[in-house]
Write a structure and sequence with these properties.
Blueprint lengths: L3 E3 L32 E3 L18 E4 L3 E2 L11 E7 L7 E12 L8 E7 L6 E8 L12 E6 L9 E9 L8 E12 L7 E9 H4 L7 E2 L16 E4 L6 E11 L1 E2 L2 E2 L10 E2 L4 E7 L2 E9 L24 E2 L3 E5 L7 E8 L2 E2 L12 E11 L2
């Protein structure tokens, strides 16, 4: 049965008008017109390690309790669920979630495990991944340790109204009676009316719901279980409302496993434990046309903060003790049609395993969302 908990909410609404801010993401004022560049990767930070809104007072703040992270079980129905209550009839320019990694009792657990936070969109009943983060190697930290990150979740503002339901997934078995990871969430709302308003949302890919590896992910390169199959990362088609003038695509991909299979199009390349420790790229195909810029699934950890374990090894879009390296793309709808097809293509790979659920099999956790903006 799904664990349910009502979270104590601290909500403070302040009067007064707050103007536009510096230090946040920059909204694009020009849209590409090249038919081969309908999708352009944004230069936007996936998270901040210091407060990007320093000196600005939030118009409202909503906070969770400290949430203990332990294995809740496989499948969506086993996720830990909780509720927060947000201002119901307000609009804001920016929304940040302050994501604080911490612990309970003597300190954090030992391992770097995947944590996923989902919010339920009351408009369509779908669950959207608000953020993904990875716990640190925590056995060298004490009870007073914590690490805070600031994540811009402004696109989800319409989902954060009134009584709102969340799901929390933790993919580790390392919590004990004396040590476990925990997270505390503080949602901070800034400004009054958004300069760009999301009027349409849709999901492109959701491996957490439809995974085939046993770990909320899609296996990679296993014969008969192609990750590019139509049931996984195949082409998706959408009809855009007439009011949508531009689309933002949020790509959340993290690689896992230690597969010594073969990248079939890389001559002489020696695989480095795919998919966690090996780089990859993806091509964005819009309405059948491959875009000029490719996305990269790899992340340098040379500047990661000290902890136990192999925290300094580069990984497939993530670092122990950090949020996911999310990527954002601006998509210009075709001028002559409201039909939009999207397909993300990974490099070709042959796994060393025959079973998509084999221990160590290469796999990717994939969540891709679309946000449509009005004029």
């Amino acid at each position: 049965m799904t664990a349910m908990k009502r979270i104590t909410v601290a909500c403070v609404v302040l009067a007064g008008c707050i103007t536009m801010f510096s230090g946040c993401r920059k909204d694009k004022t020009e849209v590409p017109r090249d038919p081969d560049s309908l999708a352009v990767k944004e230069d936007r930070k996936p998270f901040h390690t210091s407060d990007p809104m320093t000196g600005k007072t939030p118009a409202a703040t909503v906070s969770s309790d400290k949430l203990k992270l332990h294995f809740f079980g496989w499948g969506e129905d086993k996720d830990f669920t909780f509720h927060l209550t947000f201002p119901k009839d307000k609009e804001y320019e920016r929304v940040f979630v302050t994501y604080t990694m911490t612990s309970v009792l003597e300190g954090p657990s030992s391992w770097d495990n995947t944590t996923m936070l989902f919010v339920r969109n009351k408009a369509d009943g779908q669950w959207y991944e608000l953020t993904r983060a990875f716990t640190p190697y925590g056995n060298s930290f004490g009870s007073d340790w914590y690490k805070t990150f600031w994540i811009d979740v402004s696109e989800y503002a319409s989902m954060l109204k009134g009584d709102t339901e969340f799901r929390l997934y933790y993919g580790g078995f390392d919590a004990t009676d004396t040590r476990s990871h925990a997270v505390k969430l503080d949602f901070k709302f800034y400004g009054e009316k958004p300069s760009k308003k999301v009027i349409w949302t849709a999901k492109v890919y959701d491996s957490s719901r439809d995974g085939n590896s046993g770990y909320r992910a899609w296996s990679y390169g296993v014969k008969g279980h192609d990750i590019e199959d139509s049931s996984r990362m195949g082409k998706r088609e959408f009809t855009l409302p007439a009011e949508v003038k531009s689309v933002l695509m949020k790509v959340s991909v993290s690689g896992h496993g230690h597969d010594l299979g073969r990248f079939t199009e890389r001559t002489g390349y020696v695989t480095k434990n795919a998919a966690e420790f090996d780089e990859n790229t993806y091509t964005v195909v819009i309405n059948g046309t491959p875009q000029k810029t490719t996305g990269r699934i790899f992340y340098s950890n040379r500047n990661n903060y000290p902890q136990a374990g192999t925290y300094y090894y580069d990984r497939a879009n993530w670092a122990p003790g950090n949020p996911l390296n999310v990527q954002y793309w601006t998509i210009t709808p075709p001028a002559d049609s409201r039909q939009l097809s999207i397909d993300l293509n990974l490099e070709k790979f042959e796994s060393q395993f025959d079973d998509p659920k084999a221990e160590g099999c290469a796999q990717y956790i994939v969540e891709v969302d679309l946000f449509g903006y009005g004029k």
